[in-house]
Amino acid sequence: MSSYETYPIEVAGVKRDLRLFTIKPGIRIAILNILGDTEFVQAVSKALSEKLRVHSIEVIVTPEAKSIPLAHALSVDLNLPYVVLRKTYKPYMGEALRSETLSITTGEKQTLFLDEKDRELIKGKRVAILDDVISTGSTLQGMRLIMEKAGANVAVETAIFTEGDRAKWSNIVALGHLPIFFDEK
Q1: Rounded Cα–Cα distance for residues 8 and 115 (Å)
Q2: 168 vs 61, which has greater pLDDT?
Q3: Which pLDDT value is given to residue 137?
Q4: Beta strands in the chain (DSSP E)
Q5: Number of DSSP helices (H) and strands (E) in the chain, helices first
Q6: d(CA 14, CA 90)
Q7: 95-111 pLDDT, tens per residue?
Q8: Residues 152, 156, 162, 166: what is their CA dihedral angle, to the nearest 10 degrees?
Q9: What does pTM read for this prediction?
Q10: pLDDT digits (tens, 9 = 90+) for 78-98
Q11: Cα(first)–Cα(last) distance of the chain, in Å?
């Protein structure tokens, strides 16, 4: 069994130890991976759905891949459709809209695609933009750009956690905040 440093969190009554991951020399973040964690996803969905009801949203929009289980759970809890912005283009997606972002966890550019079939679903609708963790805001900005191109109205931006400068995320509906860890020299 590997030994690694973790950061303990409790959200919506569920406790987890998040593994610390080096993103640059001397800088680490706590990695939240909700894939396969049904207990956590269900609890977080119930807590977030209560906060989102007041925004009169009509569609939930999330990027591929880690936040998809939460989008699905929120879709069930709020009785709303959800749309996934894909990270790779497939020919069946037709005339997809696209936007580039920069991932903090990979340090690589990513492209988000809105499938042509989903454009009509969100056009003119009040959408909630959802991610698992909002750190730099790059993915959020990419999602906003696609929503603007598609004619959707972003009613609320939401995540399980924000990360980094707390003041930067005062407009985000979130259940908690994660620090960035700077190693001492």
Answers
A1: 37
A2: 61
A3: 85
A4: 6-11, 14-24, 27-31, 59-63, 82-85, 97-102, 109-114, 126-134, 153-163, 173-178, 180-182
A5: 4, 11
A6: 37
A7: 999 998 766 555 678 88
A8: 120
A9: 0.90
A10: 999 999 999 989 999 999 999
A11: 29
Compute the CA torsion angle 50, 55, 58, 62 (nearest 10 deg): -70
Token pair listed for 73: 């759970």
**Which of these, 14, 20, 44, lies nearest to 32 by C-alpha position?**
20
Instruction: Please provide the CATH number assigned to the domain covering 37-177.
Output: 3.40.50.2020
Placement of tokens 């591929």 in the chain: 64
Domain boundaries, the chain: 37-177
pLDDT digits (tens, 9 = 90+) for 114-138: 999 999 999 999 999 999 999 888 8
Q: Which residue in the block uniquely carries the two structure tokens 């995320």?
A: 169
Give CA–CA dist 22/31, Å, rounded.
10
